[in-house]
Amino acid sequence: MRRMTARPGNAHQARLLKLLRDGGPNSRAQLGDQVDLSRSKLAVEVDRLLETGLVVADGLAASRGGRRSHNIRLNPELRFLGVDIGATSVDVAVTNAELETLGHINHPMDVREGPVAVFEQVLAMAAKLRASGLAEGFDGAGIGVPGPVRFPEGIPVAPPIMPGWDGFPVREALSQELGCPVMVDNDVNLMAMGEQHAGVARTVADFLCVKIGTGIGCGIVVGGEVYRGTTGSAGDIGHIQAVPDGRPCACGNRGCLEAHFSGAALARDALEAAQQGLSAELASRLETNGDLTAVDVAAAAAAGDATALELIREGGNRTGQVIAGLVSFFNPGLVVIGGGVTGLGHTLLAAIRTQVYRQSLPLATGNLPIVLGELGPAAGVIGAARLISDHLFSPA
Amino acid sequence: MRRMTARPGNAHQARLLKLLRDGGPNSRAQLGDQVDLSRSKLAVEVDRLLETGLVVADGLAASRGGRRSHNIRLNPELRFLGVDIGATSVDVAVTNAELETLGHINHPMDVREGPVAVFEQVLAMAAKLRASGLAEGFDGAGIGVPGPVRFPEGIPVAPPIMPGWDGFPVREALSQELGCPVMVDNDVNLMAMGEQHAGVARTVADFLCVKIGTGIGCGIVVGGEVYRGTTGSAGDIGHIQAVPDGRPCACGNRGCLEAHFSGAALARDALEAAQQGLSAELASRLETNGDLTAVDVAAAAAAGDATALELIREGGNRTGQVIAGLVSFFNPGLVVIGGGVTGLGHTLLAAIRTQVYRQSLPLATGNLPIVLGELGPAAGVIGAARLISDHLFSPA
DNA sequence: CTACTTTTTCCACTCACAGGACAAAGACGG
DNA sequence: CCGTCTTTGTCCTGTGAGTGGAAAAAGTAG
Questions:
Q1: What is the pLDDT of residues A212-250, one digit of tens each?
Q2: What residue ranges of chain B have pLDDT lower than 50?
Q3: Residue range A49-78: mean pLDDT, rounded
């Protein structure tokens, strides 16, 4: 098919598109219940949307007691590409316009290989998804990168863990290659959008989404909108001091949260423990794999290894301490914990909760859920699809 | 005069009122340059505003080369009352509709005496201002209280330093007494609004406003709007842990920022130092006054007293450390330092700056001014007037 | 006094939208 | 099977907001 290029012509159409995206097929009458428009006006706007091809008829709706109505839905042939570039792997997914994941693949890849190599990989993965019949082309793509982004231009700025990406015109380059509109954002922000769209944060206006992976970041949502800060580096909590005069960090300071707890720090601590003979479990895993990662620590903890549990608990305490500060400051309605270390599960969560509930004031914590993300590795790509759909479903 | 009760009838009128508030008298043509409306539409809306009495004619404008235009301005008889209830004193000011302070008085008062006693004082001060001819009555009042507020209802919730205020219907009670609309907010938020309206933050959309007085709080402005959090306690940074296992705090924890640096903590430390004979300067002041406050420390520091300087420097370091974390998290475009301890001046500022610039990443600090508030004790009352004017100049 | 600007008013025209009337299509009871 | 009721979809007209051009009003500059 020819790719869609139409955009909503006004705010009403944008509203309707978003309702159809979030609510699935709907009759005109049901839409009318949700927007404050006269039936005539609604009919006009729906007709225009049908003309653009963004929306198509979709059979009869269930009867509500009288004349049955015809459903309409977003064009089922629309396809969005969601790309989540992590520090050590790339996730790519295809969704329809309702942001349902149709296919999702993951490939290990070091982001430090630079934008050219990474994009080659991303394009190959996109081609693979296309070849498997899930899409003939893409109507838009959202890209998440593990570092701060100058959002309007879609360009990474001074990303600490992505040497070689600074100033690279990601948005422009990928838009060219994919032949469709592209939006770029920090991967943590996308995770927050993902959990907001389809995960635990569906009903919350103000929340924090802490992602603990190779590094540590935090998505900030204010009034339902992602807050990115003055230079796009908001939520960069990995380098908040967690331990006075603590471990040296790559950033040049000491005691950064990231230096004490993150995928990388955890692997290092586990290796140390294994080598010092503190944990038979970890040592045997080291023997087998030749290396240790956060996954090994999670497995060891699941097997009841005391050292692994202690590592997780201590890391959780550190993280919880920082989050407690953020909770006092930001007073969110929800805190979501996600990222690669979600596998550490409830040991981690319990440690974080303990710190936050102990250190922050009751008014801020009284009704504050602290939960694990619901979507796991899909949060990023769903958030990416959501990002581009928000863009495309806004008036031009 | 009869008090104004009119409100703008639509968003255009609201926009015009705010332009006149912030820009002073303006001709229709000048207003036309700032709003995106046709001349005819503009004329209609201005006429309606003139009819309501909110706006009046104000002579001829300066020539711009052609026909001279007639200025219009907000009714100069409109009066707002700004009230800033601090922990240890009350500020009350009268402004006109352009938020220019016409009179400002301050009275020491302990907020712990409870809402009834405090309001008696506030009403007496308002009466005094009225009696001095500055106002015949008030068209609206903004109230700042030193604790979290459930904003829509204007009711303090669980305020730690204001026993007896929890759940007291401040908005309703004062509205009754003053006979005009009232809005209530946290005093720190009002300080932020004040600096935004008439101080250092005029051009910044996202900034933090740290107020160090008896306690420590932080106003958060996102996209030009004050962010209050889910339960109204956002910005409550006084109980963020600044020193692991540090001093015990009234909140039950240890090492809270407020326990280590605030007006109260500074007075306590100064007293200790004086009694231990570490500072002749402080000891002599203790002799004279029978007590020591932050003001004495400021004076001693200004006189070059090493102990006082050290106290300030250490407090600034602690505060700077916490602010550094907030800067990493929030990535503001500006940090304003204000409150009672502003008298500590550049010694304090230098200590804070050092910590922030050292601990936060360059991307966040690169272009980040950290400055003292410009308005001093007037910030709160101006912010209060701004709060109620924002409310009254919005469509009903 | 003349030519040119700027401001203000006036007016006709467009357009979005509401809301009623009516037709279409089904549910349901008899 | 038929008539009545309910819901849905379409048509149409009235209304009010708003635009933009023309012209009048009131200046400035030379």
A1: 988 899 999 999 999 999 999 999 999 999 998 889 988
A2: none
A3: 85
User: How many Å apart are CA B169 and CA B115, to the nearest integer?
Assistant: 10
| CA distances to A153, A298, B163 from A230, in Å | 14, 37, 38
- Nearest by CB to residue A329, choosing from B231, B232, B326, is B326
Measured in angstroms, the CA of A365 and the nearest CA of chain B are apart by 10
- Cα–chain-centroid distance for residue A197? 10
Q: Determine the Cα–Cα distance for residues A14 and A7; give it in Å rounded to an integer.
A: 8
Q: Is A244 on the interface with B (CB under 8 A)?
A: yes
Q: Given this model, what pLDDT does residue B245 score?
A: 87
Average pLDDT, chain A: 91
Task: Assess whether the region A11-74 and the region A80-196+378-392 belong to the same CATH fold.
Answer: no
Q: Which nucleotide comes closest to B27 if you measure CA to C1'?
A: C7
User: What's the pTM value of the predicted model, to 2 decimals?
Assistant: 0.93
CA distance B232 to A367: 13
Chain B CB contacts of A333 below 8 Å: 230
Of A226, A250, A254, nearest in space to A242 by CA: A254
Domain boundaries, chain A: 11-74, 80-196+378-392, 202-372
Contact yes or no for A361 and B239 at CB 8 A: yes
Multiple choice CATH, A80-196+378-392, 3.40.50.2300, 3.30.420.40, 3.40.50.12230, 2.60.40.10: 3.30.420.40
The pLDDT of residue A1 is 59
Assign A92 to helix, strand or coil: strand
CA angle B335, B215, B190 (to 5 degrees): 55
CA-to-CA distance for A339 and B171, rounded, in angstroms?
Answer: 44
CB contact A333 to B (< 8 Å): yes
pLDDT tens column, A310-340: 888 999 999 999 999 999 999 999 999 998 7
What backbone torsions phi and psi does residue B3 show, to the nearest 5 degrees? -65, 145
Collect all residues of chain A within an 8 Å Cβ-Cβ radius of residue B239. 328, 359-361
**Straight-line distance from CA B27 to C1' D26, in Å?**
15
Q: Average pLDDT for residues A32-55, to the nearest whole number?
A: 89
Return the H-helix or E-strand segment holding B388.
helix B378-392
Q: Is the confidence at residue A165, as pLDDT, over 90?
A: yes
Within 13 Å, how many C-alpha atoms sit on residue B209's CB side? 36
Reported as a single tens digit per residue, the pLDDT across B315-346 is 999 999 999 999 999 999 999 999 877 677 78
* Alpha-carbon distance A231 to nearest alpha carbon in chain B (angstroms): 7
For A11-74, CATH gives 1.10.10.10
Fold of B202-372: Nucleotidyltransferase; domain 5 (3.30.420)
Tokens of B140: 């609206």
Would you put residue B233 in left (φ > 0), alpha (ψ -120 to 50) or beta? alpha
Question: Which protein residues have any CB–strand C distance under 7 A?
Answer: A 10, 12, 36-41, 60, 63, 65-68; B 27-30, 39-40, 43, 61, 64-70
pLDDT of A196 reads 97
Closest approach of B382 to chain A, Cα-based (Å): 24
Distance between CA atoms of B288 and B227, rounded to whole angstroms? Answer: 44
Nucleotide nearest to B67 (CA to C1'): D27
DSSP state of A340: G
Of residues A86 and B278, which shows the higher confidence score? A86
Nearest alpha-carbon partner for A360 in B239, B234, B324, B218:
B239
